[in-house]
Every structure is written in C-alpha cells, then in structure tokens.
Amino acid sequence: MKKIVMTGGGTAGHVTPNIALFPALQKEGYEISYIGSYEGIEKRLIEEQGVPYYGISSGKLRRYFDPKNFSDPFKVLKGYHQSIRLLKKLKPDVVFSKGGFVSVPVVLAASRCHIPAIIHESDLTPGLANRIAIPKATKVCCNFPETMAHVPEDKAVLTGTPIRAELLSGDAGRAFALCNFTDSAKPALLIVGGSSGSRAINTAIRDLLPELIKNYNVIHLCGKGNVDTSLNAIAGYAQFEYANEELADLFALSSLVISRAGANAICELLALRKPNILIPLPAAASRGDQILNANSFRSQGFSYVLEEEELTNTTLLEAIDHVFHKKDAYIDAMEHSKVTNSIETIMGLIREASSHK
Questions:
Q1: Span 2-26, mean pLDDT?
Q2: 129 is in an annotated binding site
Q3: Is 125 annotated as a binding-site member?
Q4: Per the annotation, does 164 bind a ligand?
Q5: What value does the mean pLDDT take over residues 17-37?
Q6: Which of 38, 85, 248, 292 sits CB 3.0–4.6 Å from 170 for a disulfide?
Q7: What is the mean pLDDT of residues 306-324?
Q8: What's the pTM?
Q9: Which CATH architecture has domain 166-335?
Q10: Where does UDP-N-acetyl-alpha-D-glucosamine bind (predicted)?
Q11: Any idea which architecture 3-160+340-355 has in CATH?
Q12: SS3 sequence, the chain?
C-alpha cells in the first residue's frame, strides 16, 4: 500500500483542498496521515475526517518586528526535528503540502529524508512559507498561469485547486426551501463575504435590498455575528452567518455570486461556472494577494472586479446588472479554462512522485 503524508494549516484555506483530495487518494489505496500544528484549525478539520493526525511545534516567520520573532524560529526548528522523526516512523512514499507555516518544517524534513514533496500554491504569488519550501519541493502546483513565472520551470505545473466533490452536486430545490423564497421566477443572487463577513459588502447589499429584491432572490452569507434580525421579514431575502453542508445547495440555486477573492473561493466559482463579481480584500488589510487573484480572473474573462475603494450602491448595482446580462459570456470563458480537472492532475503528480521514491 502506498503511503502519503499531507500537511498544511493556519487557515481553512490551507486544509480544505487537502480534504478534497482524500476520496481520490483513498480510492487508489493510499494510506493517509496528516501533520499539522498542535491546536490549529487543521486539527479539528482533519480529525473529523477520521485521518490520523500528528501535531508538531510551529511558529510564524514574520517580515516585521514582533517579540515572537525571537522565539518562533526555535519552534520551527523543533517542528523540523519532530517532522523528521514522524516521517521516519510513517515512511510515506510522498508528502503533499498545502502551505501555511506549519508545512515548512515538514517539507524541509521530507527533503532531509529523501521523500519527494509536492507543494500547492493557491495565490498568484507564493507566500513566504511556500517561498521557503519551494527549493526543496519536487513539483509546485499552481492555481494561476501567472504563478508559473515565480516558480522554477521544471517544477511548476498548472493544476488549479482541488474542489470538494459535494460542491458540484447541490440541490437548488433544497436551497429554495431553506431560504423560504416564494417566487421561483426570480434568479438568486448569492453574497459570500468570508467567515467573518465584510462590513463594506454587508452595508452595500442591505442598502440596496429594496432595489435588489425587485428582480432577485437574495442569499446573504454575512459572517459571524452580522445577522440583522430587523431584516428577517423581507420577502426574497435570506441571511445566514455562514453555510457548511448547505453551501452546495445555495451555489446550485444561485445565478450570480458576489464574493471576496480568496484563491479557494474563486476556484470554486470557476469549477461551478458561476458568473461572479469579485470584491478583493484591500491591500491595506492584506498582502494584496486577493487583488492579484481577482485581476487574473478578470484578465481571463472569468470575473467582474470591483475594488472595495470603489464600492458604492451605484457601482455595485451597475456591476450586478452588467454581469447578469453578460452571464453567458462569463460562463463561456470559464468553460474554456485550461484548468479542467484539478484533482486528477494532482493525483497524476502524486502517482509519479510515489513511483520514483
């Protein structure tokens, strides 16, 4: 039986693509183990899947001053030695890393143990953790054509992001009932602002509600603690803090999606062929990766991009009208994407690496 060790953590975005690969790996008989941090979000998510989980010491490597800069390198070094011991114990044929700082010592340890390591980079430009790990990687899976220029030519492979199979099989009827909608003739507009929500997007949507519900059923995932109960009685408007299992059904019902531009989120929109408006997280609140992601999707004809600094009731309504009336062109562009089957492409790399160990 082939064995694989997977790693990645810090955010759900560093874990869910790994989970999306589990069924294909299990179908081919791989024995899966997971290395993550002691108490990161990845621990709960992986243990829920019934996959053996091993925690290691991890620390963040920062490019700015922080008192933890003096202690975290020792945590990373400890994690590296723990990873070496784990890999010698587990004896995997290959390591697959989705990134995040916990993955750095695991990839470096794989190189030390002569185990091939495959890295997945979600964003258009590699983050610091993957930049450290790439020299020790066998292959680097890329979401965007532009990423290939930041990775050694012999390592870069355009794969896209693995998407959970259940997202592709939602039931629009279940979503319609869940939202208590009554007019099935109206197309549905889905707003996804991230797990914590976006104040700017939430405010703009709610300001526009009287106008929007004339033509659309509106599904608003507004983030934890952001439900406005005074709006519950508005026909054609359904608000939720977040969606888990229901997300596939909500996607199935939706004709147009408004979303942040996190790499995993927009790859799900591409896989589902959903016309979309991307409102990336501003550069002042991030390293600017969402802006780069969004601009790439705009240049490929997949998305309409509206910068948060330009977000007003007028510009958002104009964007919705534009995308809805041009939705067939957006769908056609996505149909012609070079990223067609991410899971099978990545599985091919895993098979190849496993056979050459």
A1: 93
A2: no
A3: no
A4: yes
A5: 96
A6: 248
A7: 96
A8: 0.85
A9: 3-Layer(aba) Sandwich (3.40)
A10: 11-13, 164, 195, 290
A11: 3-Layer(aba) Sandwich (3.40)
A12: CCEEEEECCCCHHHCHHHHHHHHHHHHCCCEEEEEEECCCHHHHHHHCCCCCEEEECCCCCCCCCCHHHHCHHHHHHHHHHHHHHHHHHHCCCEEEECCCCCHHHHHHHHHHCCCCEEEEECCCCCCHHHHHHHHHCCEEEECCHHHHHHCCCCCEEECCCCCCHHHHHCCHHHHHHHCCCCCCCCCEEEEECCCCCCHHHHHHHHHHHHHHCCCCEEEEECCCCCCCHHHCCCCCEEEECCCCCCHHHHHHHEEEEEECCCHHHHHHHHHHCCCEEECCCCHHHCCCHHHHHHHHHHHCCCCEECCHHHCCHHHHHHHHHHHHHCHHHHHHHHHCCCCCCHHHHHHHHHHHHHHCC
